[in-house]
Amino acid sequence: MLSAWKKMYAAGTSSLLLFTLLISAGAGSASAAEAAAAIQGSEQDVFRIVALGDSITAGYEPGMTDPNVKPYGYAERLLEQGWYHGRSVLSNYGILGLTTTGLLNYTAAIKDGAVTTADGIQAGLPDPRINQFAALTPQIKTELGEADLVTLTIGGNDVSSLLVTAKDLTEEAFKAQLDQLLASYSSNVKVALENIRAVNAKATIMLADQYQPAPKIAVSSSYLKLMSAAQQFTKAAENVAASLNQPDAPVKVAHVAEAFAGVEASRTHIISAGAADFHPTQLGYETIARVFAETYWGEYRVPSVSAWTAASAPMSIVVKGVEVNTPNKPVLKNGQNFLALKDILNAVGATGKWDNKTQSAAIVYGGRTVVITIGSQTIKVNGAAVAIDTPAFLQKIGNEDKTYLPLAALATGLGFDVNYSSKLRTAFINP
C-alpha cells in the first residue's frame, strides 16, 4: 500500500489516507444513544457545520496509514469552537485528492440528491472512502440543507504541479500556467458555491484561500513567484465570494494564506518521494481553524487545561460557554467524566437536594427531576428508571465527602448535551 502511495505522490496527487468515515462529531463524545437522548426535543438549537473540500478538510497528515487513527484537523477544532457557543455537530466530507473540478461535480450531485460514482466525482481519486462518499449524496443534501455553516478548502490539488515545477519554469511559462489555473479555479469554485447555495439559501459559506505551503529555504529560487501566486488566488477567492455574498446569505473568505506567510516551515510537513507532499502540521491545522473561527465568531478559544499540560492537572469543564473554575477536581473514571454535584448545579442553574438517608441527590432542571443514588447502576428521570454505565460516588476532599456525578448520566437525565475533547481535555456541557 505504501508503494502505491509513493506512486500517487510522484504523479502529483497531494492526498491519500486510510481512516474512518468522518460523519460523527468526533472522538471522545458521548455515545450515539446518549447524544440522541441529549438532543431529543432540541433539534432547533443545534449548530450544524458541514465541511466540504480536499485533504485539508479531511485533516490528512503524511504517514497517516492506520484506519483506526482519527484525524484532528481544522474541522474537528472548529467543532470544538462550536461547543463553546452551544450544541454543535459536524459532518465532514473532505475528499483526498479532490480538485475544484471534482468539487464542482460533487456539489452538482449533492444539489440533485442523486447517488453518483467515484468517477462521476473525479477520476482516479486516491481516497479509500470515495465510494461511500459517492453513495451518500442524498444524505449530504439533507445535511447541507440544514447547515448553519459550510466550510471549504479547495485548490491545493489544482496547483500542486505548479508548486513542484515552479523553479524550472520561465517567467512567461509560469504566468501562463498560473493564469489558466486562476481562470479554472474561479469558474469551478463559483459554480460549486452556487450549487451549495441552491441547496441552502441562508447558511454562512466560508471558503479558505489557497495558502503557499513551501518555506523559503525549500524553494528559495521560486519563493517570491509562489507567494505572488498565492496572493492572486486570494484575490480570486475574494472575487468569487463577493459575487455571491448577500447580507442574509453570507459568503466569506477565510484568509488562511496570510496566516501561513513567512512561517510555512512550522505549519507544513514536507515529504519528498519523487515529488513534494505538503500538508499542514498540527500547528498548521490549528492555524486554519483559528482563521475560520475568528472569521465566523470573532474569537478562537483555548481552555486553561489541554492535552499538552501535565497529566496530573484536572480537565476543564465548559458549561454554556463558561469555563468552570472550582477547587473540586473533575474526575475521569472508567472512561466517564465526573463532576462534583455542587459545581454542576451552580454552573447550569439547577436546584438539588441531598438525602443522606438514601445516599441520593434529587436534581431539578427544565421541568425534569433526576434522582441519582450513590453506587446505583440506574438513575430515575421523572420517576422512570434509566440504566447508566458508571454510578455516582462519594469522594473525600479534605474533611468533606463530595458527591460526584457522571456527566453522561446528567446528559441523559436532564437533557444536556455533553461532549468531551481528549485533545483539549475539556468537557463541554450545553443545556
Count of distinct structural domains: 2
**pLDDT average, as an integer?**
85
Helix proportion range:
25-40%
How many strands in all?
20
Give the CA-based shape.
elongated
Runs in which pLDDT lies below 50 for 5 or more consecutive residues are 1-44
Overview of this structure, please?
The protein has 431 residues and is an alpha/beta fold. The protein has 2 domains: 2-296, Rossmann fold; 316-430, Copper Amine Oxidase, Chain A, domain 1, CATH 3.30.457. It has 16 helices and 20 strands. It has helices spanning 2-10, 32-39, 55-58, 74-83, 100-112, 118-121, 130-135, 137-146, 156-165, 171-199, 223-244, 256-260, 264-267, 282-296, 341-348, 407-414, and strands spanning 47-53, 88-94, 149-153, 204-208, 251-254, 268-272, 276-280, 316-319, 322-323, 331-333, 336-340, 351-355, 360-365, 368-373, 378-381, 384-387, 393-397, 400-406, 417-421, 426-430. A 5-stranded parallel β-sheet has the order 2-1-3-4-5, sandwiched between helices. The protein has a 5-stranded antiparallel β-sheet with strand order 12-13-14-15-16, covered by helices on one side. It has a 4-stranded mixed β-sheet with strand order 9-8-20-19. The radius of gyration is 24 Å and the shape is elongated. Mean pLDDT is 85; it is low at 1-44. InterPro entries: Cu_amine_oxidase-like_N, Ester_Hydrolysis_Enzymes, GDSL, Mao_N_sf, SGNH_hydro_sf. It holds the Pfam family Cu_amine_oxidN1. One of its GO terms (molecular function) is phosphatidylcholine lysophospholipase activity. This is Copper amine oxidase.
